[in-house]
Every structure is written in structure tokens, then in C-alpha cells.
Amino acid sequence: MKARNLLFVLLLFTPLLAPVHGQEVPSIFLYVNDLTDPPSLLSGERDLIEELCLEVDQETSAEVAVLVVNTTQPLGIDLFAVRTFEENGLGKRELDNGVLVLVSTDERQWRVEVGYGLEGVLNDAKVGSIGRATLSVGFETGDLYGGIYDATLAIGQEIVDNYAPPGGSPLGIPSLFEIDWRVVAVAVIIFIAIAVLTGGRSIVLIGSVLRRKGFGGGRSGGGGAKG
């Protein structure tokens, strides 16, 4: 009976752990997603970029996401950026104050996608200027981390200096730290089940299940720039 109940729990939550096949754009999370193989960013480099994004989120509620991939094919970088932005819901709900900094290493291309709520702050000309001065230089010099860091810093500074969310919008506690009790409950059940089956070797799995929450907005303004 005990084994049967355990099997039921595993079958019940298998869809939450199973990979999505045939997905043309990735699921991304707050804030930095390096999906390249081999990784383009060291863990310490990723952490430093995430600190910038977190600070922007805390001060303004705007969400800057960084995504590094090997390629954006078959969609191409423009459609890939728009679909990634919208399907992952970048920015706070109802504010659409998200920014996607997309870098494709094999294609040596970049694109910055801007949500509706930030178009007045990050217009196409400004974003293009930032990208050419940072991301394009990063490709030219071979310092991709430096280019991404500088681009994130410049974009974040523009937001902090010039963006004020509508009145009543929550500040100071980004969605990174919101507690979703349903996720917690599922994680506890999975942790117990997997711990029994693996003799306690389930810490890595639970770390991925409890990965930071994603975004809540989702409307790209169609603006931005690429290079």
C-alpha cells in the first residue's frame, strides 16, 4: 500500500517535472538565463548581472531579463525575442514593464525587447545606442560578459532615473520573493517522495522545482533594437 501511494504521488506530479518537447522558445526566470552549451557566463558573472536586475526591480518594479542562447533559429532573433517576451510574461502584471536582453552567441546577434510600459523610457534610438556601445563591443572584443553587464547596467540606470510606475504599484518586494503556497506544497510532496526513492539524494531536484518565480506581464511593445 505504501509503494502504491508513493507511485500515485509521483504520477500525479510528473507533468510538473517533465520537459516540454517541441518548444520553440524557452521558459525563463528572474533574472539571468544562460542556456548556451557550454555556458557563456561563469556563475559569479551571472550573479553580478542578477544583482543589477534585482536592484532595478526593487527600486522601480521593472523586470529586466537576460537570456543567452546558442541560436534563435528557426524563428530568427526578432520573432524569437517577441515570443520569448510574451510567452514568459516579462514585467509586472498590468504594468508590462519588462525588458528582455537577448544574446545569440552562434549568430553573434543581440536584441533588446521592451514592454509597453517602458517604451517612453527606452525608445528604439536609446536602446540601439546602448546595445551598440555594449553588446556589439562585447562581441568584437570577445568579452561577452562585459558587454552584457554594461548593457544591463545602462538599461537599468535609464529605468531607475526615468521610470515611475503608476500609483499604488508595489515596490521594494519583487516577485522573486513572493510566496506561492501551492508551489511550496507541491515541492514538499515531491521532496518526500523522491527522498524515499533516492535515499535522500533529492536536494538538486528540489532546487530546480523551487527555482525563482517567473514573470507576470507579457506584452511586448514591439519596440527595441538589435545588432
Biggest sheet descriptor:
5 strands, mixed
Report the span from N to C terminus.
60 Å
Strand order of the largest sheet: 1-2-3-4-5
Strand percentage: 5-15%
CATH class: Alpha Beta
Instruction: Supply the helix-strand structural class.
Output: alpha/beta
Description:
This protein has 227 residues and is of the alpha/beta class. The chain has one domain: Diaminopimelate Epimerase, Chain A, domain 1 (Roll). Helix content is 48%, strand content 14%. The chain is built from seven helices and five strands, in the order αβαβαββααααβ. The protein has a five-stranded mixed sheet, with helices on both faces. A hairpin with a 4-residue loop joins strand 3 and strand 4. Helix 4 packs antiparallel against helix 5. The longest helix is centred in the last third of the chain and has 19 residues. It is globular. The N terminus is likely disordered.
Write the layout of secondary structure elements.
Layout: H1 2-17, E1 32-34, H2 43-60, E2 63-69, H3 77-88, E3 98-104, E4 109-115, H4 124-141, H5 144-162, H6 181-198, H7 203-209, E5 220-226
Helix pairs in contact: 1-6, 2-5, 4-5, 6-7
Summarize the structure.
This protein has helices spanning about 1-15, 45-60, 75-90, 125-140, 145-160, 180-200, 205-210; strands at about 30-35, 65-70, 100-105, 110-115, 220-225. Helices cover about 50% and strands about 15% of the residues.
